[in-house]
Amino acid sequence: MSENETQTVAAGKDATVLPPKARESLKAARAVFLKSGYDGATMEEIARVAAISKATLYAHFPGKAALFEELIRVECRAVNARLYVPDPQSASVEAELRRVADNYRRIFTQREGLDLFRVLIPVAPRFPRLAEVFYEEGPGGSVRKIATYLAALDRAGRLRIPDPDLAALQLLALISEDSRLSGMLALPPWPASEADPLIDCGIAMFLAFYKP
Q1: Which CATH topology does 17-62 take?
Q2: Does domain 72-210 fall into CATH 1.10.357.10?
Q3: In the chain, fewer beta carbons within 10 Å around the N or the C end?
Q4: Which region holds residue 86: left if phi is over 0, alpha if psi is between -120 and 50, else beta?
């Protein structure tokens, strides 16, 4: 990825504030990347699907890597915006964690954001920057939301959590690993009769370990 490409996508603007042509470019790019993969996609095809000129496309995104990076940012932020933000003032920590788990399962059952993840995996070793952006804007953003909540619980003395970031990673692994893995592999989601006991057990283990 060139220096110019990195500088262009570093701003990571929300899709709603991008110029209309840029939004159309991202929409077209998503369709082309999902159809042809990263290596098979071309700027020419993306411009054709977006019904814009190549010059217009390059005016917004100086190359394919920059376009894919911005698409990753936009999609990951859209998914993270739909994640449940637990309330540290809620009377029941267990109920809040259950809401988090149900929200995660619903999102990953719908496969949101996972299509691009599957496009990214084959090229991640060649484009580590793209993998870094995906993690920071996707899973990393989720961890930060949960860690903020857990830190508030620790300050209030409701749980004993010396490392909220680590605890957030542990919690997400306990309550959503099955949904994420099945989604990544495009497998049918676990039925509630199987997923619910796993989530309940994971939350119980988490609360038992971090009890004050």
Answers
A1: Arc Repressor Mutant, subunit A (1.10.10)
A2: yes
A3: C
A4: beta
